[in-house]
Amino acid sequence: MLRTAKRLVVKVGSSSLTSLAGGISEEALLALVDVLAERRNAGSQIILVSSGAIAAGLAPLGLGRRPRDLATQQAAASVGQGLLVARYTQAFGAHGITVSQVLLTAEDLMRRQHYANAYRALNRLLHLGVLPVVNENDTVATHEIRFGDNDRLAALVAHLVKADALVLLSDVDAIYDRPPRAGGTRIPLVAGPEDLAGADIGSTGKAGVGTGGMVTKVDAANIAAGSGIPALVTSTPNAARALAGEDVGTWFSVNGSRRTPRLLWLAHLASIQGRLTLDDGAVQAVRERHRSLLPAGITSVKGDFEPGDPVELADAQGRVIARGLVNFSSYELPRMLGRSTRELASSLGRQYEREVIHVDDLVVL
Question: Using CA atoms, how far apart are residues 361 and 365, in angstroms rounded to an integer?
């Protein structure tokens, strides 16, 4: 699949580009560019989602480690993003490839008009023969609205541009059932969540400059595979072998169909404002029969939300099974619990004779 893919989204992490002494590793960057340029010049369209802006800004600002506060992260990103793109421009230019910089915030993939604009811009760049370099716009992102890591951003960009495949590169060559140093075995294929049951998945890369780790790569690969796009998780040194279709890394095969942008936002980006706990009948209706949620099936309400806000739905054991856009506020709902819509319409008015969450506004997780 990767060997024949025409449109690829490739994500590279900070740990693969940054030296332990700080700053961008020229050797690592050039090695990656050589691999991607060869594939691009062979006829494929490539979007590179690249971390490293904050890491690249540390040394010029005299910072010895990744800052914890948002303002300093934004300052480092502002300095480092220009340095990072300048290096990519020079490196890809040596192969005759023009690059562009595309900075996205979560809001760009939450609002329909922003989403359409982002798609048109990236699609046009690809058709003009440009290789877009995408990063989260850390300089203006807020804690409340951000991707949190470029793995998830890459999965959403792959969905946005209708990519044939997603490749997630880091300093770990595959997903293992436990750490390799403890005798772990590579998991070559993930066809569904059951293939990762019991796996001991690690965390941040060796350089300590990223925000991701294997957990975020698994989440991102699942986002892509659940949206109809296969994904590969492997190491940056394996990039050439991976793009040639060799058996490296961990392959996530497609296990779902393409979702609308609104439902993708609801599943992965929405800021959840509350929780509704459901009885067993409602859980079965929502999760297995794909029905709307009615007030009769809700046993408790938690949080502070208004009509139209995203909330999560949980079973009696507290397991979150779905997300949805609620039609009633947290003030209205408690008096509606366990009652039929007909009864509610009779006692409270016709405006209460409707679903708490319509099936079209529900995403089963």
Answer: 13
